[in-house]
Structure formats: structure tokens, C-alpha cells
Design a protein that fits this description.
The complex is a heterodimer of chains A (113) and B (110). Chain A is mainly beta. In chain A, strands 2, 4, 5, 6, 9, 10 and 11 form a seven-stranded mixed beta sheet that branches. In chain A, strands 1-3-8-7 form a four-stranded antiparallel beta sheet, with no helix packed on it. The radius of gyration of chain A is 13 Å and the shape is globular. Chain B is mostly beta strands. In chain B, 0% of the residues lie in helices and 62% in strands. Chain B starts with a strand and ends with a strand. In chain B, 36% of the residues are buried. Classes of the chains: A mainly beta (113), B mainly beta (110). The interface between A and B is medium-sized, with 25 and 22 residues.
Chain lengths: 113, 110
């Protein structure tokens, strides 16, 4: 089934631990994104990638890193998790040309204690 | 900078029409998206306006006025399943320049 998958669905993590959220799309979209969604703040862009091999910082990149080794995968890593990173994380992709809307993955609910 | 305003919450009756407004201040504005997000789920694309005017897609329509920095989403013949959050998002420049509003939670009541 075409679309975006994210793993895990949810995770409880101790502060200070390292965590990688996985995202895979099979639509051959060039652009991929990571957002976090917090109550009252809406969706905020963490990092993005215009194409395989390139990444860029979004609005709230601190504490997060990404890589884009190929077209399909765009993992998000929290090197040392903190409670303020408790959030719902959405991965998204778009075809890449200006104006194309974004497809969103199902999300990962992360709790950092 | 980018700034998007939309009402936090609205309530409407099943079968009725509801209009959800969105105002934006976006430098280099290129277009405006509307997404629907049911509780606990991912946002799904509804519409995209680039030019002024109304775009109709079934029960949903979206309007844009670039000169006024204003858009609305119109939902007709409301159904209970339309209870969701509706996100307004402006687009400027490249792929990373999509700014989302905080969303309007619509409650559809019998």
C-alpha cells in the first residue's frame, strides 16, 4: 500500500536516552519532512530534506538530527532526549515541486520522562 | 515572518453549513492549504488555493483573497464525521516553507 509508515507508533523514553524515529515512504517523493505537534502550538517543522543526500533545519531543530541516505527513508534522531521533546511526531513527504501538498505518516507519540 | 490565525473552536449542527476563517501574514506568499485532522490521526490534504477565488470539491470549498491575506473553508451538508480539526497552512518559496496554523476544532452536533 503506497504511503508513509512510521515506527514506533508510540514510545516512552527515559530522559538522556538516544532514540531514532523511523520514517519510510514508497511514493518516490523527493521531499520529506519531520514535524512535531503540540497542543496549542500546531505543527512545527523540525528538519526537512529536499532530495536524497541533502537536509535542512526547520523552525525547531535543536536536539534533533536527520539523515537522508536514500529517497525512501528519513530517520529522526534524538541524541539525548529531554522531557520537552514529549510530543507527537509526524513525518511527511511531497513530490517536491513548488506547491505540492504533503502526505503525512500516522505519527509517533513520544513521551520522555 | 509567518503568522496564521484561525479560531480555536467552532460548533455546528449536522446538515448545516459552516465557514472556518483563516488570516495569514506570510512573506513571499505562494499559496494556502487546508488539511483535516481527526483526533489521534495524521493530517490529510483537503485543498490548495493559489489564485483568488473559490475552489470547490464536493461538500468542501476553499476561498482565497491574496490582497486581504484571508482564506476560508466552507463545509456544506455537515456530517458527524466532519468533527475534526481543520488546519490552515500557508506556503511560500521552497518545500520547507509551509507554516501551519494551530487548527480549528469543529464539533458537529446532532
Amino acid at each position: 500500500i503506497a504511503g508513509i509508515t512510521q515506527a514506533p507508533t508510540s514510545q516512552i523514553l527515559a530522559a538522556g536516552r538516544r532514540m531514532t524515529l523511523r520514517c519510510t515512504q514508497d511514493m518516490r517523493h523527493n521531499a520529506m519532512y519531520w514535524y512535531r505537534q503540540d497542543l496549542g502550538l500546531g505543527l512545527r517543522l523540525i528538519h526537512y530534506s529536499n532530495t536524497a543526500g541533502t537536509t535542512g533545519k526547520g523552525e525547531v531543530p535543536d536536539g534533533y538530527s536527520v539523515s537522508r541516505a536514500n529517497t525512501d527513508d528519513f530517520p529522526l534522531t534524538l541524541a539525548s532526549a529531554v522531557p520537552s521533546q514529549t510530543s507527537v511526531y509526524f513525518c511527511a513527504s511531497s513530490e517536491g515541486t513548488s506547491g505540492n501538498f504533503q502526505f503525512f505518516g500516522p505519527g509517533t507519540r513520544l513521551t520522555v520522562l | 515572518g509567518q503568522n496564521i490565525d484561525q479560531p480555536t473552536e467552532m460548533t455546528a449542527t449536522e446538515g448545516a453549513i459552516v465557514q472556518i476563517n483563516c488570516t495569514y501574514q506570510t512573506s513571499g506568499f505562494n499559496g494556502l492549504f487546508w488539511y483535516q485532522q481527526h483526533a489521534g490521526e495524521a493530517p490529510t490534504f483537503l485543498s490548495y488555493n493559489v489564485l483568488d477565488g473559490l475552489e470547490e470539491k464536493g461538500r468542501f470549498s476553499s476561498f482565497l483573497s491574496r490582497s486581504k491575506g484571508y482564506s476560508y473553508l466552507l463545509l456544506k451538508e455537515l456530517q458527524m464525521k466532519d468533527s475534526a480539526s481543520y488546519l490552515c497552512a500557508s506556503f511560500s518559496g521552497g518545500y520547507q516553507k509551509v507554516t501551519f496554523g494551530t487548527g480549528t476544532t469543529l464539533h458537529v452536533i446532532p
